[in-house]
Specification:
The structure holds 2 protein chains of 2 kinds.
Chain A: E1 12-17, H1 26-36, E2 45-46, E3 54-55, E4 59-66, E5 73-80, H2 88-91, E6 98-100, E7 107-109, H3 119-123, E8 130-131, E9 138-139, H4 145-148, H5 161-165, E10 171-175, H6 182-190, E11 206-208, H7 223-228, H8 235-245
Parallel strand pairs in A: 1-11
Antiparallel strand pairs in A: 1-10, 2-3, 4-5, 6-7, 8-9
Chain B: H1 5-25, H2 34-55, H3 76-99, H4 106-128, H5 140-163, H6 170-196, H7 203-207, E1 215-219, H8 227-232, H9 236-239, H10 241-262, H11 267-290
Helix pairs in contact in B: 1-2, 1-4, 1-5, 1-11, 2-3, 3-4, 4-5, 5-6, 5-11, 6-10, 10-11
The chains are: A alpha+beta, B mainly alpha.
Chain lengths: 247, 304
């Protein structure tokens, strides 16, 4: 059924900290690695070693620059499915292949039903869906549904692959429907925000803004002046003058 | 948006066929002999059917296309599929009834006509319901599709009248001129009004980095074009948009209007008018896709 379910109490999703991400692409690679061997068909690549490689990826990291001059910032910007509450990719699907789970809000594609029409990718403002070039079905982030409930792997691995692999801890996974969950508290404390709220999709995933740079007042302090200001006293004065005399 | 040939052919061919079917059901084209009826029904079904068949060509899994009939509650694409099947069946039964020599009851013809209008409307809503493409997400988009189906259908009906040796009356000639001019008039307004409508989104809202000042893309997330850019970042046509608009107006409006005005009784010249109109609508449909900007291209540094 591609009609949306009633909003679930549990809303599983990601919180991405734009202050911390360094754009190392580890989440991108681990996502590809896990999802090429997990849920659904492998994530294929075409012409992987040629001049114009092409392939399906579920998580991509952009880089943006914001502001001017001294206060300008470089922001590495990971982007994957936001598991929207009002997911347009679900309602446009003509076959029922695209669906939102009633129990935890995860948006998935049933690849056995997908006809590969591409309309869901057209309806997504975030570019979260990519057609698999070999399989002809739509691929998207599954929030690693085959990890997070998987009791056959160690507990610390029962989080999405991108979260598990992030070396800087810029990605967090949890229940954004529970106001007291770690991720919800983080969003509240850091004023986490939605991407393109005007599109009316009500994304579950939240982004944390880069922190403000510490402000310095006046001209930068000179380190030479700092050293000169310290005039030695007593024993150290004697050592200092003796060493000076030695040349 | 990338203009896929299969989709351009689908919307223009099915639209024309359904428009023609509407005028036939309204009784404009007399279906006196069995040969005429078969030829006209075959031509109409050919246009609608070829379009629908073409629409399955761009699918990753055409063999599963039947599944697309299931989600009519939420999806305009599914509604279009269901309506297309129903309208073909209804139209077939209508032709069978007429073939028997009877005049179909008013409710039956009105029903088929309603289904035809609903099908063309559903086709247009596949695009007009996408909030991510601002120029499609406009109330005038369905009007354009309906007007082109009606005008193209009437022109095709004129050609069929001339082909079957029947008289294109002055009233039909004037109605065709009027409807054709009106359809392209609405399109001109759409180009101006819908073409100027913004998505309300920007790179600032897409990244949420408004507080930091102007945001710009400094590095794409990959080294070569990906599916999103291939599908939604098509920019070739925009450079030539003005020229192509003139071409579509010339082929779709000016030449057919001249020919219908000057030679309403000549089957070959009406045939040229019809082919020219089809070519004009083809260019118009190509531009419909090629000129459309998708909000996802904001992430790739495109200015909207």
């Amino acid at each position: 059924m591609t009609s949306l379910p009633e909003p679930s109490a549990i809303k599983l999703g990601l919180v991405i900290d734009l202050d911390i991400c360094v754009g190392c692409q580890a989440c991108v690679v681990n996502c590809k690695e896990w999802n090429t061997s997990g849920y659904g068909a492998p994530l294929s690549d075409e012409n992987a070693y040629g001049a114009n490689p092409n392939g399906a990826w579920l998580n991509r990291v952009h880089a943006f620059e914001a502001g001017e001059g001294e206060t300008a910032k470089t922001i590495h910007f990971p982007k994957s499915c936001l598991h929207c509450e009002d997911a347009p990719c679900v309602t446009v699907c003509p076959t029922g292949a695209s669906f939102k789970r009633a129990e935890d809000g995860i948006v998935l594609v049933n690849e056995d039903w997908c006809i590969g029409c591409g309309l869901c990718a057209w309806s997504c403002p975030y570019g979260a869906r990519e057609m698999d070039p070999a399989e002809g079905v739509m691929k998207k982030c599954t929030l690693c549904v085959d990890r997070i409930y998987n009791e056959n792997i160690p507990e610390e691995d029962q989080v999405p692959a991108c979260v598990r692999t992030c070396p800087t801890n810029a990605r967090h996974f949890g229940d954004l429907g529970d106001p007291n969950s770690e991720v919800s508290l983080m969003v509240a404390a850091r004023e986490g925000f939605d991407l393109m709220p005007e599109q009316g999709t009500k994304p579950v995933n939240k982004y944390l803004p880069p922190r403000q740079r510490r402000q310095t007042e006046g001209a930068p302090m000179s380190l030479v002046a700092m050293a000169d200001a310290e005039t030695p006293k007593g024993f150290w004065k004697w050592v200092d003058s003796t060493l000076e005399k030695l040349g | 948006m990338r203009p896929a040939w299969s989709i351009i052919f689908f919307t223009s061919s099915s639209g024309l066929g359904l428009g023609l079917a509407a005028w036939i059901v309204l009784g404009l084209v007399p279906l006196e002999s069995a040969t005429h009826l078969l030829a006209i029904a075959g031509f109409t079904f050919g246009l609608i059917g070829a379009g629908l068949f073409s629409s399955t060509l761009h699918l990753g899994h055409p063999e599963r296309a039947w599944r697309a009939l299931s989600q009519w509650r939420s999806s305009w694409l599914s509604r279009e599929g269901v309506l297309a099947v129903v309208v073909m069946a209804a139209l077939f039964m209508w032709f069978v009834y007429v073939h028997g020599g009877a005049v179909p009851p008013l409710w039956a013809s009105a029903g088929v006509l309603t289904l035809i209008i609903a099908t063309v409307y559903a086709t247009s809503m596949i695009y007009a319901s996408l909030k991510t493409v601002a120029r499609w997400y406009h109330p005038l988009t369905p009007i354009c599709y309906l007007m082109f189906a009606a005008a193209g259908g009437l022109l095709a009906a004129c050609w069929l009248l001339a082909m079957t040796g029947q008289h294109v009356t002055a009233a039909i000639q004037q109605s065709t001129l009027l409807l054709l001019a009106a359809a392209w008039g609405v399109k001109l307004i759409w180009w101006r009004v819908a073409g100027a409508s913004g998505s309300g989104s920007s790179l600032a809202s897409a990244t949420g980095l408004t507080a930091l000042g102007e945001v710009r893309s400094i590095m794409p997330p990959h080294t070569s074009e990906n599916y999103l850019q291939h599908e939604m970042g098509f920019i070739v046509a925009r450079r030539h948009a003005e020229k192509l608009r003139l071409l579509s107006l010339g082929l779709g409006a000016v030449l057919p209007l001249l020919l219908i005005w000057l030679a309403p009784l000549s089957a070959p010249l009406l045939g040229i008018a019809l082919v020219s109109h089809i070519a004009g609508v083809f260019v118009e449909r190509w531009l419909f896709f090629a000129e459309a900007k998708h909000v996802v291209s904001l992430y790739y540094g495109e200015v909207h």
